[in-house]
Each structure stands twice: as structure tokens, then as C-alpha cells.
Batch of 3 targets.
Target 1
Amino acid sequence: MEQSSRAADGLGSIPALLQRNAKQFGKKAAYREKEFGIWQSWTWKETEEEIEAFALGLLELGVSEGDFVSIIGRNRPYFYWAMVAIQSIGAVPVPVYQDSAAEEMAHILSNCGAKYAVVEDQEQVDKVIEVQEHLTDFRHMIYIDPRGLRKYDHTRLHQYSTVQDQGRAARGKLMSELEKRRSKLDFDSTCVMLYTSGTTGKPKGVVLSNRNIIKTAQNTCEFDGLKAGDEVFAYLPMAWVGDFIFSIGQAYWTGLAVNCPESAETVSSDLREIGPTYFFAPPPVFEKHLTDVMIRMEDAGRLKRSMFHHYMAHARKVGPAILDGRPVSLLDRLKYKMGELFVYGPLKNTLGLSRVRVGYTAGEAIGPELFEFYRSLGINLKQLYGQTEASVFITMQPNGEVRADTVGVPAPDVEIRIDDSGEIFYRSPGVFVEYFNNPESTASTKDTEGWVATGDAGFFDKNNGHLRIIDRVKDVGKLADGSMFAPKYVENKLKFFPDVLEAVLFGNERDRCVAFINIDLTAVGNWAERNNIAYASYQELAGHPRVLETIQEHVETVNKSVAEDPMLSGCQIHRFLVLHKELDADDGEMTRTRKVRRKIVEEKFSDLITALYDGSPEIHTKTEVTYEDGRKGSISATLDLRDAKVVPVATQKVAAE
């Protein structure tokens, strides 16, 4: 592990990497953004100039070393520039999820004592103004989009471009101060503070240093051979550590280009136009892509459907082997090339993944069937395992050693150990500095030797040395008969089906398992339209008898699959219901990264769980919901509770070691 506070090559901070890139890759594209349907592009030299102007403008505005500056908005070059400009003057960027409710935003901004904010538009300005009474030291806000803000009080409200203009005008006066602050930055300087998703409690501020980000970026770029010619697509929330390491850490280490979509609605079409060579998506994104593909196939003609299913069957058989360079017969290779011409190539192009050289998924376990689907197309999709506290990377899958049931080997410079309870611990150059103003949580997570408790249970596969994740330690339990209860394993199998959006399994310390299921409104709605089934709402469609029958078939198919695993066969679903509403972050049921808050779901829908276990055939329930404008309301429904067939198996008790 690097001991020096300043890198020997002088590249001990992100601003230092920016200066190197401006010299080394000056005319290469650094950022692109689609605006009004046209791609705008900035070279590394132009990027350096944009960042310098904003940094000088922040100095003119009075930003001091150590100040926290929140960043709130969608992926745009301006925000990435702002983060590096903030670092350049010794302040700390704090990205915030743009879809956060005002009260969530208030917690983060007040917790870090944010004095400044860089936001996108009127919506975000209004949110900050709403919570400003909780921010005792708040001084100025900077916005990018001026629409709707003309009549606001601009005493402490400034347009981004104006701040840059003021910075350029003050260059002669402030440049020496900027250079002084920038020269003080080293490996130990704070690079960014990112807040955890708050699955089990209030989000905590994770302080990451330049060492954490730069050493992690260096190691992982070398692992996958990333270089200046690569393209990354920046569409995931900027408040998420993955976007920061990909779009700033790795981008600034290698000089690769960061591409920002025009809006959330144009992500798919913009992805196709860019065709990234390096791509990351959590499992839900890959699930949605597959759902869209299957919907299109249902709408296609008989010949096209037949060709798709014929060649996809062959791809599943030989595609992963061809991708990994394993022996495949000449006849199978020729047939696969035909499939590439007629099916795989056009499909990858439609998905925007035709140029992907390295693809990753993480955040939660991906269903093996879903994983193999993409690899069978020839997409080098791999799994990694990581955390915010690790600067993302804990394990990675080397090329040629990719498996659906493991998350790979320790990433470069990462050490892993597993304690007697099965919990995974790691230490690496990427290990976070601390939880901001929370020494108790820091001490309970990271010990004096730098080992971090992940909260996940797992083990190393004896055959290949790869790590396998079972579930969260707090979620892994036992059924009443002593057999293992691992909900994620079953939930991921259910979510492989295009019409299942989310699933939540219950059963810890009970005699059997039951489940809640959310349907995917896009997929099921498309089915309803094709079959001339009218519906007025998610609730109405979720309760349709034919939808319930289809979901029951999926549950029983999953039960057969689960029964084949002797260790987890007790996790078959005995009863289930389709929820009358989608689990929603605004209602507190999920995090902003779409992780289910199990405890909240269990408490909020306790009446439904009780009914599933007491054998009730149906239940009437009333649930509070939050509308898009923040108003509260309630919805009522009578839910059909269904029994599912289970496969009889010999019980295998799992003794605690």
C-alpha cells in the first residue's frame, strides 16, 4: 500500500491528473453531452479551462478550504467540472441524489454543514430553499438552467456561467491563490464525500481521499486494460460511488471520454449513439433491457420470433465458451457467426452494447439466467463486488474466469478474510478514511488494522478461489427447522422473469417462506394491450386473474429451481401475493439505489404477512402513499393470496459453525 502522502510522480490528486491530461491528451474528447438533440464535445484542454474558470469563480464567491459544497442534478459535464473545481480549491464536493425528497436532502446538507450548493434547475433550487432553515451556515447556491428563476432573489443565487465569467475576470487576482491551494493537495486530501444509501438507517457520509480514488482507479484500469481511447456512458446517479469512480477516478487516470445523455428519457437512444466500450449497469438495468427485448419479440412476426429463439438457444449453448476462448467445434462456430449476422449483432446494436469491451454489473446479485443471456451474445459482462467504503472494488472477475455464481477474485491490492460467522472483511488502498462526524460507526466498521466489515456473508469456492456471496449477514437466517434462509437467492431468480420487477421473501425463524411480488408495469402492460385487456392503473392490472396465474407459474418454476440446491431448498415459496403498489423510495420502502428496506417493508405491510401465514384467501388493506408533488394519500385494495406448489425435499439442517 502507498505510504507516501504525495505520489512520487506528482499525480496525488484529481486536479493534478487533470493538468496531466490537458497536456498529454489535450485534443482528445474528455466530455460529451447531448443537448437539444445535438452532441456537444469538450477536449481535455477545454475541460481544464472550464474547470479553472469555475474554480476561480468559487474563490471569488468566498469558498474556503474545507468547505462542503453539495452537487445536485443529473449527469452533466458541468457537475463533473464543478466537483474537480471544488477539489482544486481545497473544498469537498458532496453529490446528492437528485430525486431525493426535501427532508432527505436536509439531512445530508445539514449533516455535512454544506455552505454552498451547485444545482441543476428550478426544481432543485426550490428544494434547497425549502430546507434552508435547517442549514445554519448556508451561503450561496449556483444553478445551471436559468429557466423559471428570473424573478427569484439573486442575492445568494448565481448562474453557473456567470460564476465562470467572474472567475475569468478575476484570473489575474486569484490565480496565485488557486495554484497555492492546488499545490497543497496530496494523497491524504479529501477527494469526495459520498453518502450511503441508508438501507438500515440514516445515510452516513463516507469520506474518501485522493489515495482511495486514485490508487483504486490505477489498479482497476490496469486490471481491465482501460485506456485513453475508451468511452464510458455516465447515466447513473452522481451521488453513487460507482459513477464517481468510473466518471472521475478511472476517467481522469486513463483519459477516457465521459458521455452524458440528454435526459433520463433518452438514455436508451443516447446509449445506442455513443456505443461505449466500457459499461456498467446494476442488474435492474440489464433486467429492463431484457424485458424490452422480450416485449419486442412478442410483437414481432412469426419468422423473426422463430429465428430469434433458434439462434438464442445456440448462443446459450456455445456463446460463453467462445467469449472465454474455450474449445468449440467448427460447425458450432459457423452457426454462431450466422447468429451474429442475423440476431446477436442487431440485438447488441439495439441495446447500445455492440462496442462494449468490458462490462460490469454489481449492486446486488444478478440472476444466472440473465447473466448468461448477455454473455451468450458475446458481451464481456462480468461481476464485481464492492461498497462505497471500498471506493467500489473488493473483487473482480478476470477475463476467462467469469461465472454467474461468483463475484471473482480479490481486486488488485485488496486482502479478504472471512470470519467464523461467514462475514466478509477486506482491506485495501481504497478503504475509506472515516464516516463523517461519526467515530462510533467508523470504529464498528473499520478496525485499527484497516479491516472493514462488509455486513455480507460469503465463502471462497474451493475449486477456483472465487468469492461467493450468500446474502447480507443480517438477512441470512434460519427457518424453524434449522435450514438456511437466504432471501436474495430466491428473489433474484424471480426477477429474471420480465414481468417481475421486485420480490421480497419472508421466512426467517418461520416454518415456511412467503413472498411479496411487484409486477413490471411496462412488460405486463404490453401483454395486456396485445390481449385487449383494459386496465386503468397498476393496482387493477396487478390484481387481474390472468396476471396472478402467470406470476404463480413463475413462482412454481422458481421453486423447482430452488429445490435443486440442497442448502437452500427450504427457501421455496409456499404462499405469495402481488402487491397493490410498487415499492417506492418516496414511500421509504426502497433506497435511492433501489435496494429494498426489508425492515420497513415488513413493518409497513405486517397485516399482509400475517394473512399469508394464517392461510387467509384474501385480505383488504389500506396503504399510505406519496404522490409526485409530495402530497400524501392512501390507496385501498383487496388482495388475492395464493398457494404455490413446492417440491418435496429432504430437509438439510445448517448448523452454525
Target 2
Amino acid sequence: MAQVNVSGLTFCYEGSFDNIFENVSFSIDTDWKLGLIGRNGKGKTTFLNLLLGKYEYRGSITTSTVFEYFPYPVEEAWMTDNTIDVIERLEPEYELWKICRELDLLHTDAELLYRPYHTLSHGERTKVMLALLFSGEQAFLLIDEPTNHLDMPTRKLLVEYLKSKKGFILVSHDRWFLDQCVDHVLVLNRNTITVEKGNFSTWWENKQKKDAFELAENEKLKHEIAKLDEAAKKNAMWADKVEATKIGFDPVKEHDRFLDTRAYIGARSKKMQKRSKTFASRSEAAIQEKQGLLKDLESPVELKLMPLTHHKEIYIACRDYSCGYATFGNHVDQDQCDVRDDVKDSSSGAYVIKNLTMQLKRGDRMILQGANGCGKSTLIKSILQNQNVTVLNHVGKQTECSKAEESFVKEGSLEAASGLLISYINQDTSFLKGSLEDYIRACGVEESLFKAILRQLDFERVQFEKTMEDYSEGQRKKVLIAGSLLQQAHLYIWDEPLNYIDVFSRMQIEQLILKYQPTMLIVEHDQTFADHIATQKIFL
């Protein structure tokens, strides 16, 4: 057992306007299975990098343990190398048999080690890097959002694996996943940092009770302060009025007053002024107590959506629909088209979706689920390429990819309602570069509204001045979501929209969907989110 002691930690990035951490202190135990929770941009990944010694900081971090970080940094120049060569670059002393063992535990064929790295899907890359991470046995693991792009079966396998580990720090926004894996939480609140025993649900329940108590106390103190202020004003006014009568009097009107009455009036005025100061002092104390409340209150602003209603009831209909790729090669890759998540390596090609029959009707919120490679993104691609649909102001990777389309084969029927308007969110964010204002102009939407939605998703104003390359992955996803929310569409197709999105924003998006009930087709592996918003689930 070892400890990680943080004392007086202060850190900000060079050129940044705000501190990520400011004079924070806490301790954690390396035997804990610790969940690291916080909004996007609050410093979760930054803290892990500080543990790794990547940045200079004020204060101290002391520990005797050795850290290992996931995900591994894969350089662009390595992308065309075979995966096994990428592993050797990252960990020259790797043991192949251990990596194969871990891949087997993750139900993944070791043959992909001998494929070019860029031909692996996002999910396959994650599994390979997890296998490399788990093949080590001595380090304390810093696991940063491992569930992104992982299907639910693999998430369940990962849960079982992490349950067997002694200790780690896990960054995740998947509530179900955190509940299964962790026994302590380290929470980066809005203004403070807390460490508690328990999983996400126990912490969230305690937080809601604490927030409710503080809101009640806040209201009580507001009324008390108002009463004390009013009492102080009245006593001060009465004291001034009495004091004004101390000198001089009319013998005719005040025939019962004598010269020695002046001392009595002065004493009375002094007593009333003292009471006024007492009320003011109590009011100030109540104000100080009130200022200590609600510092970490999470009160997400309600988002808005303006979906359109198509005159036809059935938006999308598949009958015995099969689709896939006739040939596969290096010309169809992540840099050219967003299809790799569903492509299986093959020399002759094969259907990745077979004999699918389904209907997406007006008002449906359909969740597409299934293992990586089962055809979720392929089905979306088929819908977006249908001649009856229009994809609204899609900025970034094109929804149609000519080289991939040459190899795309289909059979059966996929019909879309004529004139169907679709708002689409791609799972990839790598195209987000340059200033936010340039991206907003390219989207063709109102800048003030776009930024207002980002503010509602807890974007700080200082982020608007940065280039999008400096955004965290969660912040990039919020940019895509903000753009989609501003589009009036019949159908919203979101491909893994919640990757990297913090748990509080996920709750906001849930409330938005349940209130406005847009017609949606979503690929999402967050089980809690899917259970809350889906009207139907399709397992491919």
C-alpha cells in the first residue's frame, strides 16, 4: 500500500488566463479503485499528467509508486506501421504472449497486431492499447476514458478485468461503468475538490442531499438577512429621531420635560443605536454563512431544441437490407471516410449488415447497439447517402466518400421519406481546427446563439478565445452538439455523441431529449443514457 499526497497544488497552462488548480490539497491510496469525476475542462487529464511529471507546478506531489498512463500517445508518422511495430515503439520491452493473453480476454483476435494501425477501428485501437496496458503488472494505472468507442460487451469485459485489479485511477463519464468499477471517488467540483468512499451513485445521492440542504439554508438565510436589515434600518431611524430631540424643547408643548431629561434621551438613543449595530452584525454573519453555500451546486441550464415534423409517419424503413464492402484496402481509412468502425479485414468483402428489417417512425428515439464492427456506422452511412435525404450544413468530413462508395455494396430495400432533413453528428472530432468563430460561420448559424448553447453546456468564456486544437475532446464534442441543436431537422442522427462528454452534460442532454422528444437515431454505448431516452433499441 502507498499513498499519493497532494499539497498546495497550483497549476495553469502557459499563456492561459485561469488556473486549473489553485492551492489544493488531498491524499489518495493506491489500493483504492478511484473514479475521477468532473466537468470537461476541469483538469482530470491535467491531473493525471501532473502525476506523470509532465508539467511544472507549484506545491508538491509525493508518492513512492510508479504510474502507467492510458491512452498511449501514437504519433501520426506511425499510423501506417503494423500495430505490433507501434507497440514496440511505445513499450520496447513488451512481452507478446502477455498482449495476446489480454486480447483474448477482451475477445479480440491477435491477428490485428499484424495489420497497419490506421486500418484498425477506434474500438480495435482501444482494445490493443488496453491489452498493452494490462500486460504490465507493477505500475499504478492511470486510465483516462477507456470506454470511448467500446461496445457494451467489451465494457462488461473491462469491468470484470478492473474488478480484479488492486488499484487505479479511472476517468470515465459512463455512470454505469463507474458504479461497477470504483470504490472511491475524487471529484473536481466547481470550486472545491472532494474525496469520498463509494461509487458514482452513492456520491451523486450524497451530493443531491447536500445541494438540497444548502439550497434550503440559502433561502432561510436570505429571509433572515432581509429581516435583520429591515430591523437595523428601523432602529437606526428611531435612534436618529430620538437623538434629534435631545437638545432644545418647547416649554408650552413639552411642559413635563426638564433639563435633566436630556441625559435620559441620550441613553435611550445610545441603546437603540447599539441594537441597530447588533442587527447589522448578525446580518453580516448570516451573509458570510450564505457565501459559504452553493459553491459546488450543479444546476445545469435547460437546453432547447426545435425539431421539425415531417408529414410522413415513417422516416426510415429497411426491408431485408444488407450492406457492406466489396473490397478492402489501405485506400479506405480513417483519414478518408468514417467507415472503419464497421469494416472487417477481408480480401473478397462481405456484408456487415445482413437482412435487416426495421422502421424508424416519427417520434421514435432509436438506439443502435452491438459489438464493434457489427455495422452501426455503416447503416448510418447508408441512410445519409439516400437520395431522398438532405444533411444540414455538415462541416468536416464529408458524409459521402467517393473512394469508399466505390466499394460499398447493398441489397434489399432502404427507403427514406422524401425531403427528410437530417442533422448529423460524426463520432470523429479531428477536423475541428482554427477559431471557433470560423467554424460557426462555416455552419451558417447565429454566433451569439451558438456561444449561448456552449455556455449552457458549461463552456467558460475564456475558451472562446482559444483555438479548437486546444480544446479537450469533451469540449470538441460539445461544439458538434451545439451545432446540431441549432439545426431544425426532422431527424437527428448522432454517432457516439457522448464520447468524452462529462456526466453533468449527459444529464442535460437527457433532459433535453425527454422534453422535446425529437426523432433520433443514435449510436451510443452508455447504458444509463440509452435506458433513459430510448423508445426502442436495435441490436445489430
Target 3
Amino acid sequence: MLRTNKPLIPNMLLLAATCASMSSCVDNDYDLKNIDKTSQFTVNNLTVPVNLSEIKLENVIKLDDNENISVIDNHYAISKGGDIETSEFDLGHIHVAAPTINPSVISVNVPELPPISGIEIPFPETKLPDVPLQTYDLELVNVDESLKKLNDIKTERPIEVEVTLSVPSSIIAKGNTITFKNIQIQLPWGLMTEDAGYNSTTGKYVLNEISVNADGKATLKVEAYGIKLGERGKIEDQKLNISGDIGIESGYITGMIRDLSLPNPLVVSVDYKVSEFDLASFSGDIDYKMDEIDIAPISLSGLPDFLDSPETEIRIANPQILISINNPVGQYGLTGTGNINLTSHFKGGKDVEHTSGEFNISGSHSDIAFCTSKEGYELVDFSGLRDILTSGDKEIGGLPESISVNIQNITFAGTVENFPIGKIGKADGSYNFVAPLGFAKDSKVIYETTVDGWGSDTLDDVNINKIHLKANCSTNLPVGVELRVQPIDKNGNEIPVKENSSRFSVDPKCTNSPVELLIESANGPINNLDGVKFKAFVSQDNENNTEALGPDLFIKLDNIRVTVDGYYETDFE
């Protein structure tokens, strides 16, 4: 319905009647084809009916298609949770091969013995000559890079160390007996054994007496369940070489002789054996780094236009990440540390990373909270968490397409005792990431809605110079709002207006605040007006304002009155 402050139809009828009364004065021979038959009427305050529903966020944000955004405590939030699965804490298997040790040969000059017949005479106690010691090498190779120093190692099965002194068996077969006394033997150092004759610090073994068996051999056997390494246990390039000397340092040979046909010199051969072994545990220094824990990315695809505008920037109000993580090595007194890293992936390939402070994994289980304190949780700083939704680049607008989450730099380091070699367990657990979308400092949210369908045959003939808009505005938004009104034509195209003539501001949480605008055309009269586009800019720079977006937040314009000024132009032919 077209209305003006002056009736249009009566005036038009009056004009027509006037023309009719003047027709008898017109000479029919005149040519009237070049006479302008259009007429213009000034239009003031032509009322345009407008109906605009309340702009409520729950009518804008649809959550059906986005599993990562939900309503928590009546606020919209990015929400992601699940299990944490890690690789096995594994130090690998360490096998040490048996070393190759050269034998020793001792030549003993046999003293002259008196002639005997059918009786035994003592073999005079004779000092063994000096013989060079032999070397041995126990090589630990391909040691896990996390092992830095071994103070001691313990084995799955005992390390067997043997020293065998041999004489020709024919000597024993003739009824002779050979005994070695007060033998001092150099064995591998550091053996962990309960044998009272062994000195672990020096590796010396004192053997009071040992006799040769019927096979011509006398064997010393020592079993060790590990090796004390001390300062010699530093690992370099994932290798550790345990080396030293082994051999007979001093002693005496004696016995009883029935047959004087002893070879001279009497050759005593000495053989050495150190068995292979596998490590079961160790004491020392460890710096173990686990693989990063990758969590399924948080997808932000399919967001409503309200949030997906290139001009939108949202900081997170009161974000939090909660982690519960097991410590597979806590029972051995080893604690761990780590970080959480979030990488926001924006259009155009730009990635922005934010990393938390270091958290601790202590005891057998740890609960960690980031940004927001929670009873029973260790609080860890993560100030960058509020900025994961912004690129920091003015040329890149809008929210990220997705956010990658991973727990990284997981390190278990320290000095341990009796720490097992091999697979131990996993640092499994769970996580919960909640990030309310809100009005933290520097947030900016843009919402657009269009009211159209105003066009009619009557309004199409009005050339509009000015649009008057009056309304009452109410909102429960906690921050101020700037509203911009943009006229559009029947094709949805924006009609240029003077820059500052179509904007107004609304105070936070206002009720029925009066609004009045005078929108002026920028490029001559406005034609084919079909409606207006409302664009709301919600932004704030208050550090203390952390309220989040919720479905009950709204911007409402009611009692809207729109009138136009211009002129009505029609053809009366």
C-alpha cells in the first residue's frame, strides 16, 4: 500500500479534470506528439511496511552438521574429547655377545726329583712364572638413545666367568696329582657376585687351592648377576665397551708324584670364558622421548555464514583443556614432562601454532588442566589458547578450517634404580578440549540478515532521495553493537549510499533503545528499492569481558518505521 502525507489520487483526478475542461480551447490542428506527457509528484514520508523478526543466535547457528561445536552450559563451544593412545615405552633388547679371549700358556720348570719306586713323593711347591694378562671386551651396541649412563646392569641369566688351568691328562693318568695353591687371578672388574673370593672393585680373585681333575683340568667358576660400572658406564653413540684384563697374576703349583716321567718344562695352559648375556635391568641416567601423540583434528568446516565470514575474528572465552595421562614408569620413580601444541590451519595454507607450558607426569597418573584451574588438576599456563581461532594476518580473514592437536615433547628423564629393559607400558589416558566461542579481547563477530520483498508497482515508480528508518533496538549482548543498513534493489545488488548515513550504535544489554537513521543516496535517486541488508558488527576490546556466545543472545529491532522521500513519476498517455 502506498501512502504519503498528501493524498495522491485526488490530486491526480483534479489535474485530469482541469485538463478535460481545457480541451475545448485546444486547436485540433496542432501536433501534440512532442509534448511531454509524464508527470512528477513530490513524495514525502511514503511509508514502507517492514517486518523483522528477532535475530537470535539459536536461529543462526545450526549444530546438526558440526560434531565439534556444541552447547555447553548454554554457551556455544568447540568441544572435542577422546582417548589418548601412545606408543609403547620400550628400551629395546640389549644382548651382549661372549668375548673372544686368547688363552695363556705357563711353562713351569720341573725340579729334579729323587729316584722313586712304587711310592709317592711331594712335588716341590713351585712358583708360577709371570705371564702377560689377556684382554677382554664386552660390547653393548645399538643401545637405545635414551640411555645416557649405566651405573650398573643386571642380567636375565647369570654371567658365567670361567678360568681353566690344564695340564696333559696323561700325567694324571699315571697316578700323579697336581694342585695349584694361593692363585691370584685377575677377573673382569665390577662383577656383582656373592663369591667371597672376589673383589668387585679390583676384579681380583684369590683362590687358596684347586686340584686338577682326571681330565687334566682345574676350573674356577664364578657366577655374576650383573656388573657395576660406576663412572665407566657413560654411553656414547649408543655404544658402551666394557673392557679389561684377565689372567693368572701369581700362584704356586704342587702335588704328589708317582711317575718321574714328567715333561720338563711342564706346560700349563689357561683358558678363559665369559658367557654371553642379556640385560634385564639397569641403574643409571635415562632421557626417554616418546613419540608425539596425534589427536584427530578438530574440523571447523560447515560453519554457518555468521561465523564463517572473512571478517569474523573470535577469541576464546575461558578455554580449557583437561588431560588425564598415565605414567607407565612411575613405579620406578621416573617422572615425565610434555607440552600440548595446537596448530590452526587457515585458508591459503597458513598455519599458526600455539604451544602450552610444560606439564608434569608424576606418580602413576596425572591430571592436568590448561588455562582454567580445576580442583584436583595441575594448572599449566597456555596463554595462546585464546588465539587459536585467529590468524593474526589481516589479509587472511575468517576462522581456521581445522585445528590439529598433539601432545609433544613427552620426555621421561632422571636417575633410576633397577629399571627394566624392554617394553614397559603406554602413557595412555584421555583428553577433553572445551573452547567457548566468546567475546574475549579483540573478538569481532559479524552477522548479516536481509529484509526484502518491498518492491511493488507503486514503489517502483518512486525515485528515492532519502530513506528514513526509525526503530526500537533491544539486545542482551554483553558488548556494544554497530548496525549498518544497506539498501538493495530487486536483483539483490547493494545501492550506494553516503558512507556514514547508514550506521548506528547500540549499547550493551539495552532495551527499546530508540534508533533513527537518514539514509541518503550517493549516486542520484534510488530506483527499484526492494529492501535493506542489516549487518551487525559485534566487537570489543575489554580485557575483562569473557562472556561466551550462547543460543539465547539476540539483537532485536521492533516497531520499525521506514519512510522514503523523493518523487513519483508516471506517464499519463
